[in-house]
Task: structure prediction
Amino acid sequence: MSNIMRESHIMKIHYLTALVAVGFVIIHIMIRFTHGSFANSLEFESVIANYKSIPYAVVLEAMLILISVHGFNGLRIILLELKQGSTYENAVTYGCLAAMIILIAYGSRTIIMATMGMV
Amino acid sequence: MTKGGLLPKGFERQSNSGSQEKYEEVKPSTKSMTLRISKFNPEKDNTSTFLEFPVSYEKWTTVLDAILEVKNYHDHSIGVRYSCRQASCGSCGMIINGKPKLACFTKISELDSNVVTVEPMNNFPIVRDLAVGFERMFSTHKRMKPYIIREDSEISPGAKEFLQTPEDVEKYIQFASCIKCGLCNSACPTMTTDSSFVGPQGLAQAYRYIADNRDQGKDKRLRIIDEPHGIWRCHFAGSCSQVCPKGVDPAMGIQLLRGYLLGYRK
Amino acid sequence: MDKDRKEGIKGMANPGRYGIERVAYWLMRITGLGLLFYFIGHIYETSSLLDGKAAWNSMLELTQTTEGHIFLTLVIGMCVFHTGNGIRLMIAQAGFGLGKPRRPDYPYTPSSLNMKNKLCIYVSIGLAALAMMYGLGVMYDV
Result:
């Protein structure tokens, strides 16, 4: 990633995703609370009903992207500190990028299909 | 004269004003402890071992005093670096009871322990016993361009000296107190695993020059530290500032330096 | 022996010796990794929605257990600490709350490791504990 982007830009993204994700996570938790008790909020119909709401689906998608970026960049940082060497560092950087993309794709599939009623 | 050069109890002495003064004998506070010294000769040994020596100490005895007593009277082969004995040169940095400290600046009585273990600083290669190699730290320090960078010079014809107000000096003088002892690098959690990390010493010195208003090399230095193993591998654990014997507070310098890269400071 | 004699993970993972800021650094790492693994699991578990009500309920049977609730409580605690300490770090790394550089004098107390920072760390830990208790209360309908 350092070949694609300067480390300061990557870290600005890291801090920005953290701040924005906090806001979205708070919204996500508050919305779950509007569905009665904790057990009720986990009922299948209740969860599906949430996905049908486009704003909520947007919140979920945003959280997915923000937290994936923040989390995998954090993992990349920890792994880069554990061992050094250009082969290892490139493997870690591109590995984390790939894992991030895969997770975002997998989660987006759930959100899009649930929102479109393909359940 | 008794030990310490004091007069015997009850001895009366005429002072300059003509009145008489009494001097009391200082009671000795000699205690004993065990000094465990790490021994390692890279040419002969595979792993370090500890040798134990009984040492007597007073309230004012430093760890360096104890090591030198052991070296003088018990084991002449102990390898230890020291020079000024007053926390000015930074030579005697070592791990004392698990924490990086200057041996000359650490009193045994303050350690509150009957066993004092001294080891070479972590994250540095060992030269011999307690002496470690500083090549990497010095080369990193050089990478930070630790000198004033300016197009012009005070010695050009017609030039005046570069004046600074006391406020200008206050901005960087703290970080100029660095004695390159390496304790901060030894304490840093990132340096325990990352051999490419610049380290708190290098980063603090980069800030020292960037904060100096005589310097015009800010962009050069920022480009050097804006890399995967540069300033961004500091996570403000603060251990460097905890152990710094001169109050340089490298953690503060590093966070202030970040401001330039994040855009908070110009 | 490693040429640079690095302490290794043992040194990085040891939160003692250096004060609460080092403990916060260590907790930040642990909680970050924990939250990442939880997040991956959460994405996987919520994908069972697409397989219908039976699959969702069978997933719930796995997670709505005592162990699941305890794990979720830990996740709540990790999330609150990571957020609180992360905000403290972002503010400190912007240069706020560190004190001003000044001529050092004995006993050379570092100004950046001041009570404000320490208090924020303790507050993050306290908030995490409170959030965990609240979360447990919600999950068990207390």
Summary: Helices of chain C lie at 9-13, 20-46, 53-63, 66-93, 115-139.
